[in-house]
Every structure is written in structure tokens, then in C-alpha cells.
Write a structure and sequence with these properties.
- The structure is a single chain.
- With about 260 residues, the protein is of the alpha+beta class.
- It has helices at about 1-20, 25-35, 35-50, 115-130, 170-175, 185-195, 255-260, and strands spanning about 25, 55-60, 70, 80-85, 90-95, 100-105, 135-145, 145-150, 155-160, 165, 180-185, 205-210, 215-220, 225.
- Strand 12 and strand 13 form a beta hairpin.
- Helix 1 crosses helix 2 and helix 1 packs across helix 3.
- It comes from marine sediment metagenome.
- Belongs to the ROK (NagC/XylR) family.
Amino acid sequence: GNLKLIQELNRSIILRTIRHYGPISRSEIAKKNKISPTTVTAAVKELICQGLVYEDGVGVSTGGRKPVLVRFSSDSKFIIAVAITNSSIKIAEMNLEAKVRRQKIFPVYNLTGKLVIDYLLKSIGQFLEEYPDLTKCIGISIISPGIIDVDKGIIYENTKLKLKNIPLKEMVEKQFKLKTWLENDANAIALAEKRFGAYRKFKNLIYITISDGVGAGIIVNGSIFRGRRGGAGEVGHTSIDRNGIPCDCGNTGCLENYVSWPAI
């Protein structure tokens, strides 16, 4: 069991190195990660078999044979990305480097509660009807505003859409038989900025979103800071006026009721 776990961890480290630094030689991968060349060779062979990396030319020789370089295969598989907002559901096909290849927007039409969840499942199903074969799809990634339990895949609370304790990950996996992830929208944007944007070198980052609501994704030491129940970034529900506008969350004078796009 421990050996298998170590092998999986090594493959993950090696794949991440190829994504970040490829095209790169096997010997350079070994040096960067202090992993034995034999382990790297075995892991790369498996990653090639899985279609996640491929050999791409040769590098400069340092005294022996020219090294064969390997590169990440971003188009070998794809993921279905779903973005829930208070006004629409956006669904896209993305490659493994987050490049959008197909996208469709489904207006929410002021639906809330069970109705919006039923509409979400119907919209995903409609989007997936275009695919005769989903063997290359690694799963469905869903982002939503509100307080999210990432480990359990539950929307604890979204006051605007009137969602409470919705086991969305379980529901989607049961209906579509695809692995599913669920994340808070601001957290996901912060992670994307850290991975693909201009702030890759920074370990600490706060990304504030202003759209249908107001939220923040907080990265501390390279990882999302979630707080005790996943609500650390819910800055939109900070009261700025105790006698202000009543909010759907039960508070008064919440920030997002003054500076979100609908409010503006």
C-alpha cells in the first residue's frame, strides 16, 4: 500500500514538473526533484501510456547521447467546467491547460432552490449530449458562489440562489457517472490566477471578485485558506451599514448589496 502511494506521489510530482518546465529531459526531471533516474524513467513511461505526456525532440548533449525531451500533452484529455452564478450557468469544455474549446451559457431565469439544481443537471446533460464518447473526459469541475465543503462536495449555503446543504458532487456523479469536483468560485479564480496568471511566483494572494456578488479567494503559503467552515472569503457579507439594506443572508448592510454589478 505504501509503495503504491509513493509511486503515485512520484508520478504526480513528475507530471507537474513536465507541465511547468517541458519540454524537459528525464535526467533534468530527476535532478529538479531529487528522484532516482530509474523512478523517473518508469513514471514517464506510464504517463506516456496514459497519453498525458509525449516525447518531443532531443535536447543538447552534455557529453553523451542527446537526451530525449518530454512534453505535457494538454489536448490528450478534457474536462467539463461548470460555473454557477446567480444569473447564469456557464458550461465549457477545457483542455488540461484550461483552454476553452467549447462553451455554452444557460440563463438562470431567476430560478432558486431545487428548481435551479434541476435546471443545472438538465443543462449539463444537454451539453454532454454533443459527445458520443466521454472516455477522454476526466470529469466535471463545478464552481459556485457561497459556502462550500470541498471535501464532501456540498453547497452549505448560497443565500441568493436559496441553496442549503446541497450534496451537489454526489448528485452530479450519480447522474452522469463522471468524477466531479466542487469549489467556491472566488477560490477557484484565485487558484487559476496562481497557476496560469501573472502571480505564479507569489505564495500569498488575495483575489477579490465583483460580479453578481462580492467574494474573495485567499491563498496563504501556496494553499487556499478556507476558514473553519469554508467561508473565509465571504467578504461580500461584511456589514458596512448596520441600518442598511436587508440582505438575503439575514444580515443588514452587506457590502455586496452596494458594490456588486446588480447593485451598481
